[in-house]
């Protein structure tokens, strides 16, 4: 049985969700990679109509009862050059969020960089991005929660292993270059934000993965991929990678000094971090004897895989992304919502500090069936609202979930040593 109406009164919880100790969130989809050799920008804020309907969208977040919103200005339109910013859209949107009392989890880089930077092979990106993060923190000093670089692992994999986005590379050296560039940018951005907001909290939204062997010959491939899935978070938190991954990084162009940078700089930032886990039906993979994979569906599920990540890093957890198409019956997304929520409750019963849940995103998305790599304009019915801003069945269910659970949560014990805001 769950303990009813328990006050989760700990320092981090008072900062994250002072009224009830848990964040219910959604997000405005703002993926912005380039495809077709950089000639096409997939700006989901534009494609999903947010630029024209941003006030309506933010009002819908309030209507749902969400405490927090994963949201951010587009990097490619805001960072116009070194130290040159166009804050017009951010100023309007963040003023409205503040007025509505919605806490932004600021998404500063979501899968793409400005054209003038190029892609994630550019060694100047970490410095330029850190300067941008600091400028944002100075301009919006009331903001405390950040995801500097969204899904670092997926950004690197899709850009420089699968060859789908941005640099569209498929070799190991480009892949490791993307990893070290992306994670260094995230680390430097956290450090820069803390100069202006010493009690900042960083919620790393990262894809949570698991790889399974289809046959005995697939076991080495699964072992490698199950080590590789941790690379970005290991570096981001200053954790030593295992020996196989160390050899892979060194063989693929990372220098010892680059590796030592993460070991030296990242641990001091870890106490400001919450491990955000993103979970979809596509996050578990079945590998064959040649190492080629296909989606496995849910073998372990969110709670089992998240337990592995929590055991590795020992950080508080937030479920930062999930969604599902509503399906031919119209109720599959709603069933998925309750399945994810059940996993969260299971983790909390076991004493794992889960601080929040996110259905991503507020509205339907465009072309995610094709991972944005093909521009077809297909609508993916995964939002809490459709693109006409009419509530979907899962949106109504999420509103009911928030109303019924916000004051009734399992006991947890958590104390993260982050200075309280003045």
Automatic annotation (TrEMBL):
It holds the Pfam family Glyco_hydro_1. It comes from the Bacteria. One of its GO terms (biological process) is carbohydrate metabolic process. GO terms for molecular function: hydrolase activity, hydrolyzing O-glycosyl compounds. PANTHER family: ALPHA-L-IDURONIDASE (PTHR12631), BETA-XYLOSIDASE-LIKE PROTEIN-RELATED (PTHR12631:SF10). This is Beta-glucosidase/6-phospho-beta-glucosidase/beta-galactosidase. It comes from Falsiroseomonas stagni DSM 19981.
């Amino acid at each position: 049985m769950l303990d009813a109406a328990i006050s989760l009164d700990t320092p981090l919880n008072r900062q994250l969700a002072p009224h009830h100790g848990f964040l219910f969130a959604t997000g405005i989809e703002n993926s912005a990679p380039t495809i077709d050799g950089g000639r096409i920008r997939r700006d989901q804020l534009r494609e999903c109509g947010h630029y024209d309907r941003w006030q309506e969208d933010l009002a819908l977040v309030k209507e749902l009862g969400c405490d927090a919103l994963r949201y951010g200005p587009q990097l490619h339109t805001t960072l116009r050059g070194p130290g040159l910013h166009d804050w017009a859209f951010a100023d309007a949107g963040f003023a409205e969020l503040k007025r509505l009392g919605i806490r932004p989890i600021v998404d500063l880089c979501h899968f793409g960089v400005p054209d003038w930077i190029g892609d994630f092979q550019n060694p100047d990106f970490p410095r330029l991005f850190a300067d941008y993060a600091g400028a944002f923190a100075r301009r919006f000093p009331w903001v405390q929660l950040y995801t500097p670089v969204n899904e670092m692992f997926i950004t690197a994999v899709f850009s420089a292993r699968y060859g789908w986005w941005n640099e569209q590379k498929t070799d190991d050296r480009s892949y490791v270059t993307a990893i070290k560039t992306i994670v260094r940018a995230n680390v430097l951005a956290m450090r820069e934000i803390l100069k202006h907001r010493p009690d900042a909290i960083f919620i790393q939204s990262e894809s949570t993965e698991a790889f399974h062997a289809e046959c005995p010959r697939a076991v080495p491939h699964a072992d490698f991929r199950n080590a590789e899935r941790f690379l970005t978070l290991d570096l981001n938190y200053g954790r030593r990678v295992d020996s196989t991954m160390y050899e892979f990084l060194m063989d693929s162009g990372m220098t010892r000094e680059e590796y030592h940078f993460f070991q030296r700089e990242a641990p001091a930032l870890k106490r400001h971090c919450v491990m955000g886990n993103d979970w979809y039906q596509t996050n578990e993979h079945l590998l064959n004897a040649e190492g080629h994979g296909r989606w496995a569906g849910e073998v372990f599920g969110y709670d089992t895989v998240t337990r592995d990540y929590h055991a590795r890093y020992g950080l508080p957890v937030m479920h930062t992304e999930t969604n599902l198409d509503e399906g031919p019956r119209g109720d599959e997304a709603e069933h998925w919502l309750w399945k994810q929520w059940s996993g969260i409750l299971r983790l909390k019963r076991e004493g794992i500090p889960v601080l929040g849940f996110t259905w991503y995103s507020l509205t339907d998305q465009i072309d995610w069936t094709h991972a944005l790599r093909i521009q077809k304009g297909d609508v993916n019915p995964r939002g809490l609202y459709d693109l006409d801003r009419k509530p979907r069945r899962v949106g109504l269910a999420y509103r009911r979930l928030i109303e019924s659970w916000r004051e009734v949560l399992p006991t947890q014990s958590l104390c993260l040593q982050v200075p309280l805001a003045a």
